[in-house]
Amino acid sequence: MLPAEKLTAVVSGLEIDLANIGRPAVLVFHGQDTAAAAMEVNNTVRAAYPDAGEVLVASVIDLRQFPSMFHGMVKPELEKAYHKAAGKLPEGADAAELIVLLPDWKGATHDACDVENSTREAAVVIADADGAILA
């Protein structure tokens, strides 16, 4: 099962409670150096499931290496990445629903999902609408 972890999306402020997503989810765990994998997964899933209401695709970004005093410097970079991705969406697309960047500041979500070293190699967790981990 997905853990009872709540994460807040960059820019949109959308709060995601992993234990209560209510729809199938594809969570891409990654760091700065493995962010390209998140784009690939997102593009692949969206080709098959373009409606964000049908399947959540979200990036869970491991940022535990940044102490809280550096969060103010990291947040603008995350926002820049969000806006860059939003600029590539088709006209009329809802960026807040399609680009879900979830900072994992303490690595708690990574740990709760048994994901290690996502800054070296991205990992994908797929869950059903009830939060059961399928793969």
Structural class: alpha/beta
Main β-sheet, spatial strand arrangement: 5-4-3-6
- Helix fraction, binned, reads 25-40%
Describe the oligomeric state of these chains in a short phrase: single chain
> Low-confidence parts lasting 5 or more residues at pLDDT below 50?
none
Number of helices: 4
The total beta strand count reads: 6
Helices and strands, in order, run as EEEHEHHEHE
Major sheet details: 4 strands, mixed
- Round the Cα radius of gyration to an integer and report it: 14 Å
Strand content: 15-25%
**Intertermini distance:** 11 Å
Tell me, rounded to a whole number, the average pLDDT: 96
Per the principal axes of the C-alpha atoms, what is the gross shape?
Answer: globular
What labels describe this entry?
alpha/beta; globular; single chain; two-stranded antiparallel sheet; 135 residues
